[in-house]
Amino acid sequence: MSDGPFLVPVLGDQLSHDLPSLRAVDKEDAIVLMMEVADETTYVKHHKAKIAFLLSAMRHYAEALRGAGWTVDYVRLDDPGNTGSFTGEVAQAIERHGASAIHVTEAGEWRVRAMLESWQDRFSIPVTIHEDDRFLCSHAEFDSWAAARTQMRMEFFYRDMRRKTGLLLDRDGQPEGGQWNYDADNRKPAPGRDLLMPQPIRFRPDSVTKEVLAMVADRFADHIGSLDHFHFAVTRPDALRQQQRFLDEALPRFGDYQDAMLTDEPFLWHSVLSPYINAGLLDPLELCHAVEKRYRAGKVPLNCAEGFIRQIIGWREYVRGVYWHEGPDYGRRNALDAGRDLPGFYWTGETDMHCLAQAIGQTIDHAYAHHIQRLMITGNFALIAGIDPHQVHVWYLEVYADAYEWVEMPNTVGMALFADGGLLGSKPYAAGGAYINRMSDYCGTCRYDVKQRVGEDACPFNALYWDFIARNQRKLARNPRMAMPYRNWDRMKEEDRAAIREQAARFLHDLR
Ligand code: FAD
Ligand code: DLZ
Ligand code: SF4
Q1: 65 lines ligand 3 (CB under 6 A)
Q2: Tens-digit pLDDT profile for residues 69-123
Q3: Is 478 helix (H, G, I), strand (E, B) or coil?
Q4: φ and ψ at residue 127, rounded to 5 degrees
């Protein structure tokens, strides 16, 4: 065996200093390899700001590692001889450094997992793939949890994660305040706009980020998105400043207004931390402990602390579990046989439907939309209009700075589109205009009338909602949680039902 250095490839969403593959080697014996490659920047046409965020964060992370004494071999996208793939770059680096072994942390998606596994046959040196312990729940743990159940409901998984971490448990190991979940307190409609509304820190691009922004503008001009509003933190210290800002300013009302939406207010009381958590700049458990500390110090109500912690140790861990448990074809499921093409306005925001124009417009500007916008505006529309789930999945993967398949796919295919037939959610999140009107101020300035179901001015969500119910009667009517909408549909007069379906058909025809 050669006595060359260990090669430690670190991928773009592995920017954590406590990475298993880094822990496995001594700095003196290792060369960290970081690779900007065309395969990753173009496997889908990512939002420009997503690419810029990640490449700048990678460059800053490489500098931070060097500062900490590591040797880093950094391959830039525009380096001559860049092969364009992880495998090609690793092959070149093995030669360049005479590497004796590879240590890598497992990848965050099936495509790249297969790539890393292929190295074990392709290269003549040993390749060790380390489990990614930045997550609470290992693959084996999730699989055995799932095997013991007929239904994989998040709520029960979440309780296990609370017990495992001890977060928000009292001295007897019972949930703080007597309940596991305070979601019922977290559905307050939007308060009016307010000058005191918290805003995320906008980080000014430094010279490294400016260089990346120029390259991205030039190279990815045909990708969706604007770089004019680029505001991301690209280092761990700045991501920690954003975390602190959230804890101080937004967390105390996070729960109350978690589902609210307001015109021209993209962020509200959300943390806007997902890009940093998913890329490794922030540690999810450390963040949850900070949230719990705020609650214990009396600075944050229980519904806000619990609601936030549930998103991270509940939903985030659970969707990852589902992604790996269900296998690589999960993204091809289409339980409701939806086949319509994604409308062009998803790439421009140009539609008279004000809610969609807002959610998509801010996505183009910031590579961000909060959960209810993703679920109940863009997701709900795609669901009730019967858009092909795979096209919708690719869109979500492209447009958000926090999007990686392991987290995006179950949220889109399972939660938003019910394309997995109810594995992830017990019923489709389908809604008409009334829900959007209750939770936002969007309808007040819309060209459509949210109260009407048919006619020139009727809100399209209304007819589409009932059309969705009617279209999927055979598949959904037996679901006990759908009993109410089907009762209401069956109670409608025949001529009203026909008019609604005709309205929906006209709208869907024009959508083409
Ligand atoms: P907050 O509202 O402040 O929530 C706090 C944190 O909880 C988030 O940062 C995130 O880490 C976690 N979280 C909350 N909800 C979820 C969830 N459903 N699944 C996983 N983690 C969650 N999240 C992503 O990180 N990447 C994605 O690609 C992604 N795609 C989505 C697609 C659809 C169709 C839907 C409905 C949701 C998607 N989500 C995704 C989940 C959620 O919308 C985002 O995590 C959240 O909007 C990020 O903004 P925030 O940091 O301000 O979140
Ligand atoms: C998303 C992304 C992009 C746009 N570019 C790179 C890159 O050039 N180099 C890199 O190491 N990672 C990038 N990534 C993140 C990877 O796609 C991600 O690490 C894999 O999907 C595995 O989860
Ligand atoms: Fe959206 Fe309908 Fe409200 Fe317009 S009226 S904002 S289309 S829900």
Answers
A1: no
A2: 999 999 999 999 999 999 999 999 999 999 999 999 999 999 999 999 999 999 9
A3: coil
A4: -120, 120
* Ligand 1 contact via 373 beta carbon (within 6 Å): no
Q: Residue 358: CB within 6 Å of ligand 1?
A: no
Q: Both 74 and 175 in a single domain?
A: no
Number of structural domains the chain divides into:
3
Per-residue pLDDT of 39-68, as tens digits, reads 999 999 999 999 999 999 999 999 999 999
Give DSSP secondary structure letters for 193-235. P-TT------PPP-HHHHHHHHHHHHHTTTSS--STT-----S
C-alpha of residue 110 to centroid of ligand 2, in Å? 13
Query: Percent of the chain beyond pLDDT 90?
Result: 94
Cβ–ligand 2 distance for 116 under 6 Å, the answer no
Tell me, in angstroms, the distance from the centre of ligand 2 to residue 12's CA: 4
pLDDT, tens digit, 9 for 90 and up, residues 7-34 = 999 999 999 999 999 999 999 999 999 9
Asked whether the whole model's pTM tops 0.90, one would answer yes
Number of the ligand 2 atom closest to the C-alpha atom of 36 = 8
Is the CB of residue 278 less than 8 Å from the CB of residue 207?
A: no
Domain termination site, one of 130, 154, 171: 130
> Which of 461, 462, 503 to mutate for ligand 3's pocket (most ligand atoms within 8 Å of CB)?
461
- Does residue 126 sit in the same domain as residue 143? no
Ligand 1: atom nearest CA of 258 is: 2
> Does 348 lie in the same domain as 484?
yes
Q: Hunting for tokens 């958000």 — which residue is that? A: 400
Q: At what angle do helices 494-511 and 460-471 cross, to 10 degrees?
A: 110
CA of 465 to the centre of ligand 3 (A): 12
Give the domain-ending residue among 293, 326, 359: 326
Looking at the fold, whether 357 and 498 belong to one and the same domain comes out as yes
